[in-house]
Amino acid sequence: MFSDLMYRLKSLFRRGDAERELDEELAFHLKHETEKLMRSGLPADEARRRARMAVGGAAQIKEDVRDEWIWRWCRDLAQDARYAIRALRQSPTFTAVAVLSLALGIGANTAIFSILDAVIMKPLPVRDPGQLAHLHHTGDDSYTNAIWEQVRGRQDVFSSAFAYGQTEFDLADGGERRPAKGVYVSGDYFRTLGVRAAIGRVLTTSDDRRGGAPVAVLNYGFWQRAYGGDAHIAGRTIRLSGHPFEIVGVAPREFFGMDVGNTFDVMVPLASEALIDAERPMIDGRSNWWLTIIGRLKPGVSFSQASARLAALSPAIYRAAMDEDMPREDQEGFIQNKLEMKPAAGMSYLRDQYGGSLQVLMGIAGLVLLIACVNIANLLLARAGARSREIAIRLAVGAGRGRLIRQLLTESVVLSLAGAACGAVLARWAGPAVVALISVQGQSQFLDLSPDMRVLLFTAGAAVLTGILFGLAPAVKATRGTTSEALKQTARALTERHGRWSLGRVLVVLQIALSLLLLVGAGLFVGTLRNLSHEQMGFRSEGILLVEPDLRPAHASPERQVLVADELLTRMRGIPGVEAAARAAVTPISGATWQ
Amino acid sequence: MDLPQGTLDLLILKTLALEPLHGWAISERIQQISKDALQVQQGSLYPALHRCERKGWIKPKWGVSDNNRRAKYYELTRAGQKQLQADEAAWRQLAVAVGLLLDQA
Asked: How many secondary structure helices (H) and strands (E) does chain B include?
């Protein structure tokens, strides 16, 4: 059976070789035949003619030989599949139950796998992501603009490097805020990543100048949502936190930035931060840690070489970027900081946060599929009992056992492929639902869940594997036993002849064991989920609302801001239903801290 | 004389039991030993050879023929030897049975 498959595959994939060898083999034969005839005294021409006649039509021979290669196998397979579909149609209830449970099993697996694929396996949609290095120092990866300028000016290990900082813009002109995810990017951002614009142009170093014309690049999805995919978007103006920016282009559809699971709406040059936060620009603040730095390694430079070089440069960089106001006792420690790097392909909040849980979820989904398999194997076994006469007759009229097993396996694989097709449809819907489950409201996670080659292979592989898994044991069992015995006995008698460890009982035991495992696992899972949502945070979170007023657009003086805040607080206390209100710069679990 | 269905595979296996041969030599050998009674047509020989190869009974090997030409030789595999024994026994049984019937019926 194995050599059979290898032979056919060889003839399929090495078709050219096989054809050439066959030609050579046949020519060799013709030559020998001719020589034999010449030895018997015939003239060369006549010998050649007779030999050709004796050999027969080369085309016909070749056709017959090719029949032995792949085609007959395909023909058999098609025949088996047709027969399988006919057999399945005869028992629609069984087929429906089996396809449905497989659709759920395979669908769940495909959905989880496509998320796992998007979070862990898909490479960043940029040029050669393996060469990108992400800078960090002890336990942190944010830098001040002063450090970034030093890195940009001094480093000689990167072919190019960039820094970016995430922010939030207000798209509204007064009134209720309309937040948009913004990113400040340094001039070489797009060039380093090798990302080209879908429309217009991307940002370049000439845009990243203090006092330069304010320009912006839009995210593809944002462009679709907010501008209806306007083809003449380049040149239009967008107001970001009250400042007009000229839109120069749209980023490609698949580009979501550097962080898997996150996306952006608008990208503007780093230098324009000074324009938006005109009162206290972070770009000038030597104690504002807000930038992420990424570099592309020079060709031929390894990560360890680059790390060593960067470590050697560190003291000079930190010395030059030090905040003059820093207390003396802290200065020494600051200079001793070291720049390190790790592959940028591995940076994702989502991956760090959910990578492990996703793998557990994948395991659970696999277990569900396994239970579905055992379930269907049991059904098939019962069906095989009912079909024992049919099988016995086919064995009696000369069908080989191997051939019959293959036929039964084809039936199970057809079943599982049908299940996989339904499952894939299910997964298209379930994938985003799971992502929505892990997204907090207003903080949507962005994941590229479009099925790629890996997901398709996974689903197809899962289908074929499950088909064989649940089909093999019943098929082997169904074709065992002598034919005369089976022909005499009724189906009932045959299925009742269970031994102590009959396949049916083993399957039931397996099913119960797996279900129990899953039940306990799911119970623990729900328990954890309950604990998380009822976590004691040290205060009562029920009925508390957080209001974040943005006073920047009013350009009020600090003294006036305090007055406005007091006024707001008084008015809020006056709203019916409000029990109490308070004001704070740093709210609990906001992630911000103060010392 | 036409060969009964399935007999050609047996003849090929038997011919190859002694030594690896190329296609032409196999047909010659069958013709010689059967004293010209059996003539194997190319039209059935090559499909049969490829069928035996597919079933793993014989495996091909490129070698050099007596007159220094590149030729595709076939040799018997272990599976082929087993198949030969089984087929040979079955054939002999059948021949005896058919013989008895023809003699006595």
From this structure: 4, 3
